[in-house]
Each structure stands twice: as structure tokens, then as C-alpha cells.
């Protein structure tokens, strides 16, 4: 509570306010039914300068101020100051540890807050999981039990490109993640409550992982419905399939979050992020033939995370596989048996680049 001149009249626990007022002399009598907050405001406004000055002096000599000073001295001692009556040398304090709690404690408390925010807004969680599950089932129904002929090869490639495309578009929801609580973060960090790395870690653990990464595993339904890796051991290829999608989603989310952090205006950030996603789609290797790519297109393809993700999925699907064949709709009798590696070579994909693509993601 401040006076009209900005001087401190009272600052402390509400439960101590009545005791403080009762021990201050020369104040108007407070009725039993009077609200304490209204009473002290009336005293400050109507009591005159002499009464206000009496309140200020009483507050400076009160037990409340003594308790606050003891607390400040304890804080100074925790920060390593040799002066128990004050902060001492400011430069000395800055050279000491910045936070009074460890990095793990900061992450723990920030994670609890993010978890509470997630629980309070369950609709967004449901939306991420349900929408991904619905898309996964619909994709499985469209490409259900895809054949191993030429049309089936195209369908397999198309289904995997669609998954990568969906992850790229869904990552746009990560653009405003940093800007949503930017002001709160700047104020709390400036006050020494926690550091930037602790904030980053907690956001990754309790926003990106449950909201962006885990729903990606829903596409395991599509994997078995479509019949991917049906000509090889699907059980061995399935974990690699899921890992590639998780890495691709992490790359997509990271790009969107990075763009969002670069622009204070979310609308501008969304526009740039959308353009970036379109460019990654264009140079993903599905729309533009790798055989006809010029030097510039190859450079852009190497900058597109979708290119690495799509290539990794194709290698996981076709490398070492047998039983594919090319046929013709004009001549039903025509049939040319091919291996999965020959399919990769036809579209200019190197079967030995799986680990490289996953490392790039």
C-alpha cells in the first residue's frame, strides 16, 4: 500500500495488517464490521499528511519490515555475499552462481507448470492424438493392402510421401510455442528464477514430446494396413519406420519453432513457416524427378528435411526386398520381376544412405 506520494505505507502478509494497525497510534477507530483494506485506504485518503507520516514511521519500525530485512540478508548470504547487512559488491555477486537452485530443480518445477497447463487444456491434446489417428486410419483405408506391381510401388511411395507431408503441415502449429509465454519467460529469467536452458528443456519434455512427437506413432496403424515391407520381414522394418517418422517430425517441429522464435509477430512467423514448408515439399524428391534436378535443385534438396525423410522411408521399404514386378495395363501378359534395390536405382536412390539420412534428420 502506497501513499499519494509513492511512499510505502504497508507491505507484507495480510494476516499481519490488523496487528500493525492496532499498534499504530493516532489512527481513527476501526469498526468491527469495517473491511481492513477499505479502512487503511480511507485513513490514507482522509487522514491527512500527519496520519500518513505516522503510518510510514510505524511501518518502518514494525516487525514486518524486520522480517523482510532478515529474509533479504539470508538471500544475500545464499548468493555468497560477505556483507550480511546488504548485497555488498554487485560485481562480486554477478561472478557468483546465478541461480540458487540447480538446473534439475529448475527443470522439475517448470515441467510441473507445463504439465498443469497441458492438463487444463486437454482439448489440444485430444485434437493432436485424434486427428493423427483419424488420418492414419484413412490413409490405411485408401492404400489398404497395396499390391507389389508397378501401381503398387507408386502407391507405396505416395503413402509414405503423404505421411511426411502431413508431419510437415502439422508442424506449423509449433510456430507460436515460444511467443506464447515469451513475456513471462523474459521477466522470470531476468529475476533469476531459472535459466534459458531449463526453460527450453521443460518445453521440449512437456510440450513437444507429448504434443508433437508421440502422436506420430499413430502411423503404425497405416504401416500394417497398407502392408508396407510386406515382401520382407515387416517386424524388423517397423521400428525403423517409426524412428524415421519421429526424427522427421522432430526436424519439422524444430524448423517451425526456430522460425517462430525469429519473429515477434506470430502472423509473420506463420507466413514464413508456410513458405519454408512449401519449399521442403517441392524439393522432397517426390514431386521433382531426381534424374532431372539441376545443381540448384540438388542443393535445395539437401536442405530439405523431407528429402532425407522420404529417402529413408523408401530405403527402409525397398532395400533387400524381393517379389516386386513391373506390368503393363496395355499388355496384361507383360511382367518384369524386379528387386527392391532395382526400384530404388530406378528413382536414383542409394540404398546405402539410410543411416546418413537418419543422421541428417
Give keywords:
two-stranded antiparallel ribbon; 2 strands; mainly alpha
The overall pLDDT, averaged over residues, is 82
Order of SSEs, N→C? HHHHHHHHHHHHHHHHEEHH
Helix content: 55-70%
The strand count comes to 2
Q: How does the major sheet shape up?
A: 2 strands, antiparallel
Calculate Rg over CA atoms: 32 Å
Q: Hey, roughly how much beta strand do the residues contain?
A: under 5%
Q: Describe the strand arrangement of the main beta sheet, using strand numbers.
A: 1-2
| Tally of helical segments | 18
The secondary structure category is mainly alpha
Spans with pLDDT under 50 lasting ≥5 residues?
81-97
Question: Rough shape?
Answer: rod-shaped
Distance between the termini: 56 Å
How would you characterize this protein structure?
The protein has a two-stranded antiparallel sheet. Helices cover 64% and strands 2% of the residues. The protein is built from 18 helices and 2 strands. The longest helix is centred in the C-terminal third of the chain and has 29 residues, at 234-262. With 361 residues, it is mainly alpha-helical. The two termini are 56 Å apart.
Give a brief outline of the structure.
The chain has 18 helices and two strands.
How is the topology of this model organized?
Blueprint: H1 17-22, H2 36-46, H3 49-60, H4 63-78, H5 90-95, H6 103-120, H7 122-142, H8 150-170, H9 177-180, H10 182-190, H11 196-213, H12 220-226, H13 234-262, H14 266-282, H15 295-302, H16 305-318, E1 324-327, E2 335-338, H17 340-346, H18 354-360
Helix pairs in contact: 6-11, 7-12, 8-13, 8-16, 13-14, 13-16, 16-17, 16-18
Amino acid at each position: 500500500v502506497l501513499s499519494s506520494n509513492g511512499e510505502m505505507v504497508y507491505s507484507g502478509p495480510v494476516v499481519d495488517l490488523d496487528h500493525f494497525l492496532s499498534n499504530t497510534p493516532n489512527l481513527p477507530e476501526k469498526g468491527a464490521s469495517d473491511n481492513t483494506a477499505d479502512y487503511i485506504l480511507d485513513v490514507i485518503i482522509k487522514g491527512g499528511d500527519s496520519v500518513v507520516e505516522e503510518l510510514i514511521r510505524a511501518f518502518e519500525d514494525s516487525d514486518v519490515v524486520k522480517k523482510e530485512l532478515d529474509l533479504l540478508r539470508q538471500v544475500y548470504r545464499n548468493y555468497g555475499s560477505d556483507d550480511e547487512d546488504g548485497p555488498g559488491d554487485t560485481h562480486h555477486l554477478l561472478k557468483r552462481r546465478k541461480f540458487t537452485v540447480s538446473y534439475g530443480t529448475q527443470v522439475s518445477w517448470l515441467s510441473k507448470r507445463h504439465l498443469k497447463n497441458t492438463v487444463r487444456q486437454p482439448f489440444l491434446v485430444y485434437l493432436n492424438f485424434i486427428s493423427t489417428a483419424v488420418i492414419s486410419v484413412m490413409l490405411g483405408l485408401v492404400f489398404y493392402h497395396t499390391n507389389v506391381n508397378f501401381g503398387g510401388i507408386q502407391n507405396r511411395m505416395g503413402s509414405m510421401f503423404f505421411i511426411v507431408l502431413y508431419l510437415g503441415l502439422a508442424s506449423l502449429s509449433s510456430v507460436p510455442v515460444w511467443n506464447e509465454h515469451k513475456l513471462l519467460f523474459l521477466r522470470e529469467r531476468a529475476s533469476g528464477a531459472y535459466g534459458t536452458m531449463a526453460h527450453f528443456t521443460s518445453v521440449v519434455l512437456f510440450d513437444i514430446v507429448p504434443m508433437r512427437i508421440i502422436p506420430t506413432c499413430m502411423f503404425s496403424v497405416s504401416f500394417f494396413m497398407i502392408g508396407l515391407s510386406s515382401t520382407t520381414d515387416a517386424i524388423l522394418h517397423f521400428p525403423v519406420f517409426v524412428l524415421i517418422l519421429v526424427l522427421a517430425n522432430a526436424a519439422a517441429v524444430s524448423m517451425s519453432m526456430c522460425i517462430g522464435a525469429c519473429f515477434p509477430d506470430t502472423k509473420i512467423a506463420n507466413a514464413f513457416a508456410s513458405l519454408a514448408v512449401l519449399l521442403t515439399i517441392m524439393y522432397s524428391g517426390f514431386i521433382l524427378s531426381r534424374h532431372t534436378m539441376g545443381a540448384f535443385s540438388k542443393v535445395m534438396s539437401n536442405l530439405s528435411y523431407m528429402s532425407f525423410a522420404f529417402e529413408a522411408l523408401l530405403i527402409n521399404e525397398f532395400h533387400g526386398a524381393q517379389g516386386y514386378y513391373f506390368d503393363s495395363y496395355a499388355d496384361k501378359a507383360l511382367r518384369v520381376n524386379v528387386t527392391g534395390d532395382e526400384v530404388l536405382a530406378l528413382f536414383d536412390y542409394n540404398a546405402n544412405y539410410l543411416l546418413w539420412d537418419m543422421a541428417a534428420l
